[in-house]
Amino acid sequence: MNRLRGIDRRRLLGRAAGGIGTLLLGGCDKLSRSAWFTGMLDSAETVNRHVQAAITPRETRAREYTDADLSPHFRSNGTHDPADAEYQALARNGFVDWRLELGGLVDRPTRLSLAELQAMPAVTQITRHDCVEGWSCIGKWTGVPLGTVLAPLGVQRGARYVMFFCYDRVGGAIERYYESIDLAEAQHPQTMLAYAMNDRTLPIPYGAPLRLRLGRQLGYKMAKYLRRIDLVDSFSRIEGGHGGFYEDNGYEWYAGI
Ligand SMILES: Nc1nc2c(c(=O)[nH]1)N[C@H]1C(S)=C(S)[C@@H](COP(=O)(O)O)O[C@H]1N2
Ligand SMILES: [Mo]
User: Fold this and answer.
1) Which atom in ligand 1 lies closest to the alpha carbon of residue 218?
2) Is the N end or the C end of the chain the one with fewer CB atoms within 10 Å?
3) Mean pLDDT of all residues in 227-233
4) 133 C-alpha to ligand 2 centroid (Å)
5) Which of 242, 73, 232, 92 is nearest to 162 (CA)?
6) What is the DSSP string of 207-238?
7) Does ligand 1 lie within 6 Å of residue 79's CB atom?
8) Closest CA to 187 of 227, 150, 160
9) Which residue's CA is minimally distant from atom 14 of ligand 1?
10) Where are the alpha helices (DSSP H) in 47-200?
11) Residue 250's closest CA among 220, 215, 217?
């Protein structure tokens, strides 16, 4: 059995092949079996990052929707409630003691509370969330553009990637969930640190108190339950070395849609 990083890879890939994708998906399923979605999965899985980048210029914005398009029941996927004791204690207290740590290749490492993040200029976007397992939902997210959060830190010249470290472990995995994007993606106007969803405080199943939202990549890139953000020059020596939990289990690092 191929037991990569403490999770059964065949189980993870098997789920991607349809296990969970065939469940009744409430308000999301009408989107998930359409032709564009099949095409999207093909391109995300087989086209390499550079070809994908040529097809979809990195500057383009993902489509934005209206309130009328919101999925009545948004799916929660992966971890729904982190078991981590520190996370549970923070959640019991409404996350007032939670701090987002920001460090790595920056001049001014910082810790930010939820209140401090909420005091920054906010954006709200209604976008579609596409999971590699074959379903989509449309939701409304409010948060701070990641570029706004990073700018005052003084990102150093050598920094190439933004790493996102989370509180949870998926399905008993050894490594905690983590993800990464490059600096171009970090500066994109639809890349945000979201603390609200559908006009409410971000609920725990969807990543409270703070999660990453991207316009143009698949769901697994959008780390929930954020704990720490680091600027790095390489992720080859971090966890499994592929830049994210899904990537360490065989998925593409650039998960373009
Ligand atoms: N920390 C963390 N982030 C995560 C996951 C997870 O299990 N843990 N699942 C990923 C996957 S596969 C998807 S599709 C989305 C699901 O987000 P949702 O629960 O808001 O639908 O979160 C992504 N980010
Ligand atoms: Mo996903």
Assistant:
1) 14
2) N
3) 98
4) 6
5) 232
6) TTT-EEE-SSB-GGGS--SEEEEEEES--TTS
7) yes
8) 150
9) 219
10) 49-55, 85-92, 114-118, 146-150, 183-187
11) 220
Tokens at 21, concatenated: 């994708």
- C-alpha–C-alpha distance, residues 95 and 115, integer Å: 10
Contacts of 165 (CB under 8 A, 6+ apart): 176, 178, 223, 226, 227, 228, 229, 230
For 39-95, the pLDDT digits (tens) are 444 444 444 555 555 556 666 899 999 999 999 999 999 999 999 999 999 999 999
Q: Provide DSSP, 8-72.
A: EHHHHHHHHTTTGGGS--GGGHHHHTSHHHHHHHHHHHHS-HHHHHHHS-TTPPPP---GGG--S
Q: Which two tokens stand for residue 64?
A: 């934005």
Residue at 216: amino acid letter: R
In which residue are the tokens 């994109």 written?
188
* Model pTM score: 0.84
Å from CA of 171 to ligand 1 middle:
12
Number of Cβ within 10 Å of residue 13's Cβ equals: 13
- Angstrom distance (rounded) from CA 31 to CA 43: 17
